[in-house]
Amino acid sequence: MTNIYFVRHATPDRTHGTDATYPLTPKGQQDVAMVTAYLQDKNIDAVLSSPFKRSYDTVVDFAKSVGLTVEVIEDFRERKISNEWIGEDEFRTFAKNQWADHTYKLPDGESYLEVQTRNIAALTDVLTRYDGKNLVVGTHGTALGSIIFFYDVSFTFEEWQAMPMPWVAKLTFDGQKFISVEKICLFQIAQSAPRSETRKRSGAMPCVVAGVGAEPHLDEVLNV
Fold first, then answer.
1. Which three-class secondary structure state does DSSP give residue 44?
2. pLDDT class for 197, splitting at 50, 70, 90?
3. pLDDT single digits (tens) 103-133
4. Which CATH number does 2-69+106-197+205-221 carry?
5. What would the pLDDT profile of 134-147 be if each residue is shown by its tens digit?
6. 18 burial via Cβ count (<10 Å: 0-12, 13-18, 19+)
7. What are the distances in angstroms from CA 27 to CA 24, 44, 50, 126?
8. Does this model's pTM top 0.85?
9. Residue 181: Cβ-neighbour burial (10 angstroms; 0-12, 13-18, 19+)
10. Backbone angles phi, psi at 197, to 5 degrees
């Protein structure tokens, strides 16, 4: 069996840089500790990542802790929305439109189907090269959501929208055959570990549950 731990990046600082170079916020940097702690006992053989800084920086601490380097895979990058920045209200409408119509896109942007197609192509190659291994992949909200939906069409827009930063989905394969997906809330794991350093540093909080409680802030719904 091949086990792939897809790690959605921690919270980025979108006030600095470009989509490819956004750094993590101070809280995002702290939350990386949860990722590193969770992966320590998973017998990881290789660490891969989107080329975008926020995803790379979320998994590189773990890679260094176990003596691995990070292999960057260009096609694991996030969806391109457009050449122009869109506001919160516009994004909500855009995201719903993309979920309803997988070919929908803004000028100079990518459709959900295009993002899914290149991410699945990259994953297919990874499954061939790392058959039977345990892997980590640093990824993004929409990229990861499109991968999960490819194998599990019951994955809903509300679940996608509720994905926090960081977040982990473990996908298991037998060769190229999809076996299962396990969705892992690092915040709940940290919260259930009293007095842990991870909990102290992360300010552990429950994961947002779709349809329950306050609507997430733009940083949570802007799944890029």
1. coil
2. very low
3. 999 999 999 999 999 999 999 999 999 999 9
4. 3.40.50.1240
5. 999 999 999 999 99
6. exposed
7. 8, 25, 21, 31
8. yes
9. middle
10. -65, -35
DSSP 70: E
pLDDT band at 149 (very low <50, low <70, confident <90, very high): very high
**Tokens linked to 90:** 């516009």
In 30-187, at which residue ranges do the beta strands (DSSP E only) sit?
46-49, 70-72, 134-139, 167-174, 177-184
Helix (H, G, I), strand (E, B) or coil at 172: strand
Residue 67 is encoded by which pair of tokens? 């003596």
d(CA 11, CA 113): 25
Residues 6+ apart with CB under 8 A from 186: 31, 34, 35, 38, 166, 167, 168
| Residue of 76, 81, 75 whose CA lies nearest to 95 | 81
- 205 in Cβ contact with 189 (< 8 Å): no
Please name the amino acid found at residue 86: I
